[in-house]
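User: Batch of two.

Assistant: Item 1 of 2:
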Amino acid sequence: MRRSWMRFASACVATGLLGFGSTASYAQTSAVASGSWFNGATWSAGVPDGTTAANVDGGFTVAVDAAGATTNKLDVGNAAGQSGGVSVAAGADLTIANNGPLPSIRIGQAAGGSGTLEVNGGSVTVNGPNADSGFAIGDLMIGDLGSGVMTMTSGTVVASDEMIIAAAPGSAGTVTVSGGTLSTQRRSIIVGFDGNATLNVSDAGSVKPNFDLLVGFRQGSQGTVNQSGGTIEAGIVFTNSFTGGTGSTVNVNMTGGTATARIAYVLGQGRGTTTMNHSGGVINALTNNGDFVVSDGGGNTSVYNISGAAQVNLLHNVIIGTFEGSNGTINQTGGAIVAGDNLAVGRDGVGAWNLAGGSASAKHAFLGDFDTSHGTMKITGGALN
């Protein structure tokens, strides 16, 4: 079967030229006190500029409290046992210049180090080359080798290439967006590349990767997405994305807001497990392939629980158990699923739909599409239209 909504270009994030924690030789300045970014006394070698890398740890917090802050690399928490923080205020801006080997922001850069980035208005821009690149080149990394936390209440944060939360094995990253817009200009936002990552979206927060939202990328990674409001918009939402071996572990909890997939919304693309609890808010996949998939790849087990006032609106299909070796389940006690075409329960794998409440609507329902598949639909309540 042709996997028409697969975007293999997203996997290019795993082939970077520079690995975790890479360093290079160029002018640097480090925080020696808490204070304004623009105060020379805050830094060991003067205020950073577009030719200087900036390091913040030692328990210090640096405030970007006006427009014009710039550096060619920002590392926060870049020593074991050390912590640091950077805050960006309303009306202020911080720019990472594409003028060095690692134009990036890395929060919690070192193993055993920790860092925070607070954006309360203004703008943060990470520039980079006008082409796909490796780790820490045009990237925003929250939890590189260590532990990173980013909170955003308003303003804009833009990474020219991609954003990675929890990059390395043993790393941890948490990003909370309650206002403003977090986006990438070229590639994806990855929630749990190789570590343990959480993305929280609420209130008026907006998360917009140019490519995809990838949750639980590599074997052993853990990714959690909690959406209680705001918007998530991506080409494809992939969980257990491109994982092999034992796979990754993913949890998605949606109680409000809107999640829009311009191509498809896919739970369980690769090996591993995904559990999604959806009790409020709306999932839309109304363009291109327009599918909602529960367990796509071999070696995957995914469960989608829909209840309450949750809604799913699709241009085409609900597919449960897409390929041989996949195992997907929908447990529906409420909410509404509306597919423009088909409900395929066990396309080429194993699929089950337990309908006890709410409604499911489509043109056709298929149980066990292909020779090796198995499909079960148990109806004890609700409505199948």
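Item 2 of 2:
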Amino acid sequence: QSLVSHVNPSTFTPTEDPQFDVLTTAQVQDFQQLTGRIGALWDRGAWAVGASVAPPIRFFATGSLTADFSANVYFTGDEDTDAIITAQAATDSSVSLPLTLPAVVRLGGMVRRDSGLQVELNVVWQGWSSVERLQLEDVDLEIETTAAEPSQVAEDVPLPIGMRDAWGVHLGSEYPLRPTARIRGGVFAETSAAAEGYASVLLPDGPKLGYGLGGSIQPWPERGLWIDLGFGQGIVFRQSIETSRVTQIQIDPLTGAVREGLVVGRGDLGVLNTTASVAMSWTL
């Protein structure tokens, strides 16, 4: 995750002037979590209903945090005595980011016609309100300055994100063109997972509509190989955000203090998510 923080002494008034920008990048990961899902299906041939539940997934990602001061006015890159910051970058190699991805509940039904047409409707709930806060922890970042000792950023850094539960309704269909080829299509509508006042370029979400198209072919029926192709888009229509709770992350280069700066989440926001996929399945 990368964002621009505002590095300016706290004795000065925060501004939106880009000369105080510092690109801050956190590279964290957690590859050790086990996930699962439990469900039930009642299939009567001409119709079927099903439900599934996926529990929350608790990650504890670890990695590094880097701050690049090259664009900040307090770093000059030479022996200028007016400079406050003397090193172009600072890195903390051991930060952590706890994150709980939400529980997901699905409920759906399907009808089948003699022609082979299948139509499915489902409702999905995602418990995003479980993400009460998102912040970098175990931060110990040293900023080299003209002072005798480096400034220490040793506070947790909260990210300006607020989440709420989201709902989605999905309608999809599949039709066999021939025994070795199928086509699919569908539409969906979803509510926003961004809490009121928190939609921003950091959390680009809102009420959305979307569609998906795809199909499957079996190039060698005798080998049991299917190739699936899919393409879809989700559209968050342009919205004007006048009341925002998204603020700058302000860091004082002299003391290392972390504070909230100005509100920066106002403006117009629209999102287009595009996904393309290719998959293969092989029946032994």
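The chain has a mean pLDDT of 91.
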